[in-house]
Write a structure and sequence with these properties.
Blueprint lengths: L16 E5 L6 H11 L3 E3 L3 E2 L14 E2 L2 H9 L3 E7 L2 E6 H9 L3 E5 L2 H10 L4 E7 L3 H9 L6 H15 L7 E4 L3 H16 L8 H8 L4
Parallel strand pairs: 1-7, 1-8, 2-7, 3-4, 8-9
Antiparallel strand pairs: 3-6, 5-6
Helix pairs in contact: 5-6
Length: 217
């Protein structure tokens, strides 16, 4: 059952940007899904992309599907928090969507690599909370990748190279979680979220409350 995860009397708050990265196979996607199942005030960031929709994908839900010209115009107008060229297609995070969600008290979940995490932090450092998910061991990571449907030795080796490259950047993050036991890793992620929500800078009603206490209202 979903709920907001914070008491009604906590007061108005600004949402946060929960930025989660990991090497492929470390369990990031599963952890993100569990978090969204638990909290109904977390919204997954919907990227814009120039790639065509796949069967079953909905514009505005899975992605904002754009032509290359539309995407380039958004870049020109500085409408992205970050964007990148990935396998001949452009992907980007629309600034307006994120800012509207944060202002309404929703947290925004980002599933990005270290470069995307850096770019988001550069744009909105006061709002970003970053978490890196680490596998328990290289052997465990390789086993998870090998167990994926359609995996070959070549694919596994390429993903392992990519994983090592991604893991070199773990120190850039506010938090790191070793995903040895999924439930333990999830509860650590949940605690990070709840503590970060309580930070003074996100409690919008505190200024007025303190003015009242000081007789300055």
């Amino acid at each position: 059952m979903s709920n907001s995860g914070h008491p009604k009397d906590q007061g108005e708050r600004r949402g946060l940007m929960l930025v989660i990265s990991s090497p492929s196979g470390a369990g990031k996607t599963t952890l993100c899904r569990k978090l969204m199942d638990r909290f109904d005030d977390i919204k997954l960031s919907v990227s814009a992309t120039t790639r065509p929709p796949r069967p079953g994908e909905t514009n505005g839900v899975d992605y904002h599907f754009k032509t290359r010209d539309e995407f380039r115009e958004m870049i020109r107008k500085r409408e992205f928090l970050e964007w990148a060229l990935v396998f001949d297609n452009l992907y980007g995070t629309p600034r307006a969507d994120t800012e509207a969600l944060l202002a309404s008290g929703h947290d925004v979940l980002f599933d990005v690599d270290w470069q995307g995490a850096d770019a988001l932090h550069d744009q909105m450092p006061r709002d970003v909370v970053s978490v890196f998910i680490l596998p328990p061991s290289i052997e465990a990571l390789k086993g998870r990748l090998a167990a994926r449907p359609g995996s070959t030795d070549e694919i596994v080796e390429r993903r392992m190279r990519d994983a090592r490259a991604e893991m070199r950047h773990w120190r850039r993050y506010d938090y790191a979680i070793v995903n040895d036991d999924l439930e333990i890793a999830y509860h650590r992620l949940e605690r990070i979220l709840l503590v970060e929500r309580l930070k003074r800078l996100r409690q919008l009603s505190l200024e007025d409350h303190v003015r009242e206490l000081m007789g300055e209202a």
